[in-house]
Amino acid sequence: MQTVGGQETEPLLVIIVGWVCRQIWRQITYKQNQRISAVLLLYTLNVFLFAGVYYYLFKETVDDTPQHHFAFSSDIVRNRNDNVRADLKEQLVDRQHLVHLFEDFETKLKGTSTVTPRELSGHPRDFIDFEEAPYSCEIDVGMLYSDIHTGKVVREMTVLAEKEELRRLYGKDMRFEGPFSGEPPSKQALDWVSKVGSSSQPALYVQALDQAIGELSNQTRSLEASLALIDPNLNPQPAKHWGYFDFVYFSTMTQATVGYGDIVPNSSATRSLVCLQVVMGLALAGFGFSFIIRPRGE
Fold it and tell me: pTM of the entire structure?
């Protein structure tokens, strides 16, 4: 038998343990602490009760198909990855189609000697439009003026492209500068104005389409690079077997209003249960704190 300072350690340990147990018993049997203990017990039972309900919903199947009342972190990451890939693919396909559409129309313009722009009431500019379902495009002819700062002749243009008249895919205000225009205007300035000065000149629209095709091609290459960086077979973590105590953890985090997002309610039923559990947990916590701060004499 070991001794400390000449005294046997076992009787001393028994005395200490007995004193601790006596103090615990006195606190439990005190009326106010009994109430706190009861609230703590209800709070804990609430956690395990809701954990059982969550686990039942998780295991629930209809025609051998899981109902997916919950989403897990790996599923969320995988779904976001798939959504980003799908969005990038859609943007890429749209821009590739626009490039082909612009190139075809540019080829058609180069084979004509004159263009007849459209004029509509309420439309401030002359414009031409062309379409290929589901895309519609428009080229607006802006102002022709001499820039007072540079002395150069400037023509403004706008190229627009929409998909099904609902979503704008491309829109660009362009500013083309010609040669210096003096007094009297130079031959180069006059030649440039004769080339792009009239809204019936095909070269005016070809110049705008060239710039638009260049920008869309750059966007296409950027989207292709972004798409190549996203792994289509992303699997953040191997499949995990979710058991009852995983939902005890989820229930505890929910009732404590913490929530780390690794398990997420994914249906109306589970979201309603989560709301109910949070309200009940806060009510029980409120009762517990009211007993703690209440004077001992009451």
Answer: 0.60
